[in-house]
Amino acid sequence: MPVPLRLVLFFGAIFALYFVLHRFTHKNAPISGPFFFDMDCLVLNTGIPYSIPFSDIDHVELEYRAGELETRITYDLLIRVIRKNGQTKKVWYKGSRTGKLPADYQAALEEKGLTVAARVK
User: Fold this and answer.
1) Which of 73, 20, 23, 21 is nearest to 44 (CA)?
2) Alpha helices in the chain (DSSP H)
3) Which of 8, 36, 63, 100 makes an SS bond possible with 78, Cβ 3.0 to 4.6 Å?
4) Whole-angstrom Cα distance, residue 29 to residue 19?
5) Number of independent structural domains in the chain
6) Cα–Cα distance measured from residue 110 to residue 92, given in angstroms and rounded to the nearest whole number
7) Which long-range contacts (CB under 8 A, 24 or more apart) does 107-116 make?
8) Collapsed DSSP state (helix, strand, coil) of residue 117
9) Which residues of the chain register pLDDT less than 50?
10) How far apart are CA 44 and CA 89, in angstroms?
11) Domain region containing 67
C-alpha cells in the first residue's frame, strides 16, 4: 500500500523544522570548523550539531595526510571521538591551509584537557 503524499510531506516538514531549530541552538555552529566547545561539551559540527560531554570522552583522534598540507591548498581531516563506553562518532572536514591547521585543532582539544592522538599518514 503506497504511503499518502500528505503523510510524507508532513513528516518531511517536521524533520526540516527540527533540523533548523536544532542547528541554530548553537550560535557559532555555522562558522566554526569541524567542532566547537559549548558548556563543557565537545560539539561535532555535523549536519545537526552533535554534543558529547567531556566526561564521556575517552580520547579524540585526528587523521590527516602531511603531504596535503605541503602541496595542496586544502586538506582532509577526519576527527574520531571515542567515548568511554566504546562508541565512536566521526566527522570529516575539508580544511584550508590559509585557515586553521590540524595542529591548531589538536592544541584546542588539549587545552580543554582531552587526550588527542594525531595520526599522520
Assistant:
1) 23
2) 5-23, 66-71, 102-111
3) 63
4) 13
5) 1
6) 20
7) 108/37, 109/42, 109/60, 112/37, 112/42, 112/54, 113/54, 114/42, 114/54, 114/57, 114/59, 114/60, 115/58, 115/59, 115/60, 116/59, 116/60, 116/61, 116/62
8) strand
9) 1
10) 9
11) 5-120
Each residue of 31-62: b (16+ CB within 10 Å) or e?
eebbbbbbeebbbbbeeebeebeeeebeebbb
DSSP assignments along 32-63, one per residue: S-SEEE-SSEEEE-SSS-EEEEGGGEEEEEEE
What CATH number is attached to the domain comprising 36?
A: 2.30.29.30
Q: What single letter denotes the amino acid at residue 107?
A: A
Amino acid at 57: I
For residue 121, the model assigns a pLDDT of 87
Contact 57, 83 (CB under 8 A): yes
**What's the predicted TM-score (pTM) here?**
0.77
